[in-house]
Amino acid sequence: MVIKMNPGKLNKRITIQKYGTITTENNFDEEAWIDFKAVWASVNNLWGKEFYAAKAVNAENTVEFIIRYSKDLEVLNSKEYRIKWQGRKFDITFIDNIKYENKWLKIKAIERL
User: Fold this and answer.
1) What is the pTM of this model?
2) Labelling 44: which of 33, 83, 97, 105 has CA 20 to 30 A away?
3) Number of structural domains, the chain?
4) Residue 7 within any structural domain of the chain
5) Is 60 contained in some domain?
6) How far is CA 6 from CA 1, 11, 69, 79, in A?
7) In sequence order, which residues have a C-beta less than 8 Å from that of residue 52 and are 6 or more positions away?
8) Dihedral angle of Cα 73, 76, 81, 87, to the nearest 10 degrees
9) Are 7 and 27 in contact (CB under 8 A)?
10) How far apart are CA 110 and CA 89, in angstroms?
11) Is residue 111 a contact partner of residue 65, using CB atoms and an 8 Å limit?
12) Does any domain span residue 6?
């Protein structure tokens, strides 16, 4: 039996950023968010049980991003990476390689206010 995942339309361009060190023009090292990879995503608000669970811990501005799996995204984690979308920043809270099929990644992230 084959179960197909329907992520919806991957019609939103998001940028995954990594926290790292850059060298300024004056040769000083500075910590900053650096663009890591731009990808197409489906962006969804939480609803139902997930929304109410997030609301219970004051995380109701949690958003779910679904993107295609890519080998270079295996390094993603919630400590060094975040998502930038429409000028908004989202801290990654959870990454799910759906069914470990290496086809889709579901990323839950909370907006930084």
Assistant:
1) 0.81
2) 33
3) 1
4) no
5) yes
6) 16, 13, 14, 28
7) none
8) 40
9) no
10) 8
11) no
12) no
Specify whether the CB–CB gap between 92 and 109 falls below 8 A: yes
Q: Where are the alpha helices (DSSP H) in 2-111?
A: 49-56
Task: Identify the domain containing residue 65 by its residue range.
Answer: 12-111
Contacts of 34 (CB under 8 A, 6+ apart): 17, 18, 19, 20, 22
**Phi then psi dihedrals of residue 81, to 5 deg:** -125, 155
* pLDDT 10s digits, 22-38: 998 899 999 999 999 99
CATH number for the domain harbouring residue 50: 2.40.10.270
Tokens of 49: 């049980």
Residue 45: what pLDDT?
85
Q: Is residue 38 part of a domain?
A: yes
Q: Spell 10-20 as b/e; 16+ CB within 10 A means b.
A: bebebebbbee
